[in-house]
Structures are given as structure tokens and as C-alpha cells.
Amino acid sequence: MSTTEKAPARQAPPEGSIKAKKRPGDLAFSGSSLGAGIIILIVLAATAVFLVVQSIPAIAGDADTNPILGGENFWSYALPFLFGTLWSALLALAIASPIAIGIALFISHYAPRRLAAVLGYIIDLLAAVPSVVFGLWGALFFSGFLQPFFATLTDTIGTWPILNLFFSGPVSATGRTVLTAALVLSVMILPIMTAICREVFLQTPKLHEEAALALGATRWEMIRMAVLPFARGGMVSGAMLGLGRALGETMAVTMVLSGSPIVAFQLLQSGNPQSIAANIALHFPEAFDTGVNTLIATGLILFIVTFAVNAVARWIVNRRAEFSGAN
Which portions of the sequence form the region Disordered (predicted)? Predict the structure, then answer.
């Protein structure tokens, strides 16, 4: 064979014939991840089945023999507690959302690095405080501290149109109202909302921020045009996680609020709606027979509401999934 002649080119192996060798570590990691996902689904399904099965005697059973219903329809009993749960949680979310976004923006774009690190640690440490401590603080100190402010609030805006639906008197003498409970809940959900918003703000592409500043935008204009649109999905996720925490909170609401099964929008009066979780905590120790099933049925309602809130949040986030720093 002449030296000028070229050897025939080696044919490429057919596509898909080469497979990467699976290492034991990869197999262990993929198997454990799959197992963890399956366990989560099994636990969620088992919880749902348990709640449904245990709720049937209360929903479809005889209300006259139920020690809690006492002849009352189940839905007439449960709907006021559902209202109290949603009302206190939405109030807490409305209070905490702007504060969390403001703190997160200050930490990520305004504060010096050392101060931002200290503030971040302090906010994160709030999440480690037990809920019973927040309940004691709200019941023994915060409610009494707020009572004079509530009285002033009623005297000033309690007679205004529309606002009198929320701030009319007479004011509770103890200050333990649904607004106090909402303020305590807002402090409790503040760490998780702030942490998520802070991380999302820090993930904003630097090119977007620098481009806005190069075009002459002020820092706030840069945040409004580049940071907030990019972080909208993350802010919604943080808000929904905070709402889920507020919906299921038990001890703080139980200790702060002396609620009852009523539907009332007044924020400062003695008569306040009770939440589902607090009602279960108060009545479960003495419940028996179908009364236990009744409380479990209200827990099923709370389970469905929380699941729906997370589903809506996922839908909102998915609508923003096409927007990313690479676009």
C-alpha cells in the first residue's frame, strides 16, 4: 500500500449503542431520590384517605347524635371556622407581604454587605422561634400594648364609610382580637417570605441591572424594571408558602384569640371568628365518638384549602416560567 493512500475511515458506531457506565454512587443517589419522591406521594395519599374515611361519619351521619354538632348541620358548623381561618390568614398575608418584600430589597440591593449579612441572619433566626413563644408574646404583651392604639383607631376612622365595617367599636378591653392574631401570624410568616424573596432578588441577571443603570435609570427604577418583573414568580411562591403557614398555624392563634364560630369582619371587637386549627386544638382532648370525626372532617377542609392554595401558586409560577435571565 502506498504511503500516500489513506486508510479507510472507521465507521462511527450506531447511535444509541454507547451507554455511560453507571457508577454505584449514581445508582444510590437516583434510587434514594426516587424512593423519597414515592414516599412523599404515599404519605400524602395515606393522609388524604385517612381524612376522607374518618370524615364520612360526621358529614353523612346523624347530626342529632353527634356530641359536637348537637343537631346542627355539619356545613353550618364548619363554614364559620373556615371563614375564620381564611380571614386571619389573608390579613396576615396582606400585612407581611409588603414588609417582606421591602426587607428583602433592602438586604439585596441597598444595605452594605456586612449589614445585609447580619440582617439576613436575624430574619432567618425568627423562623427558629417556636409558635408557642409567639403565642405567649401576643397574648401577654402584644395584645395589651395594641389595645390603646385600637381604641384610637376606632375613634378616628371607625365611623368612616366602608372602614366602619372593619374598625367599628366597641373595642376589646384586652386587645386580643383577630387583628392582633393576624399581626402575630404576619411576624411568624415573615422569615420564610423574606428569605425566598431575597434569594430571588439576588438571582436577577446582573446584565439586566447594569443595562438599566447604564441607560440612566435610578436604583429604584432599575429595581422596578429589572428586578421585580424577574422575581414575580418567586414572590408569589413566597407569599403562598407564607399563606400556607398561616392557614395551618394552631398554638399562636389559640393563645391570642378567644374566638367563636361566627362570621364577622370587625377587626377590633371582642367577638372574633375562630380558625379550624385552633378549634381542633381546643376541642380534641374532650371529643369522643362522632365528635372526633367532626373535628377530623374540619381538618379535611383545611387540607383541601391548603392544597388548593399551593396548586394556585404553582399555576401562577408556571405562567412566569418562560421568563428567565437567559431570555
Answer: 1-23
Please state, as a whole number, how many other Cβ atoms lie within 10 Å of the Cβ of residue 239.
24
pTM above 0.85, yes or no: no
Query: Residue 186's domain spans which residues?
Result: 40-319
Q: What are the 10-residue block averages of pLDDT along the chain, 327 residues in total?
A: 51 58 78 89 92 88 80 87 92 93 91 87 85 90 90 85 83 88 92 90 88 87 89 86 87 84 86 88 85 90 89 75 46
The answer as to whether 29 is a domain residue is no
At 176, phi and psi to the nearest 5? -90, 85
- Structural domain count, the chain: 1
Q: What value does the CA radius of gyration of the chain take, rounded to a whole number of Å?
A: 27
Count of residues for the chain? 327
- Residue-wise pLDDT tens digits, 80-119: 999 999 999 999 999 999 999 999 999 988 888 888 888 8
Is position 169 within any domain? yes
C-alpha 182/C-alpha 173 separation (Å) is 18
- What are the DSSP E strand ranges found in the chain? none
Please indicate, yes or no, if residue 144 is contained in any of the structural domains.
Answer: yes
Please, are residues 291 and 282 in contact by the beta-carbon 8 Å criterion?
no
Q: Give 105-125 as a DSSP string.
A: HIIIIIS-HHHHHHHHHHHHH
The answer to whether residues 210 and 188 touch, using CB atoms and an 8 Å cutoff, is no
Determine the 3-state secondary structure of 93 from DSSP: helix
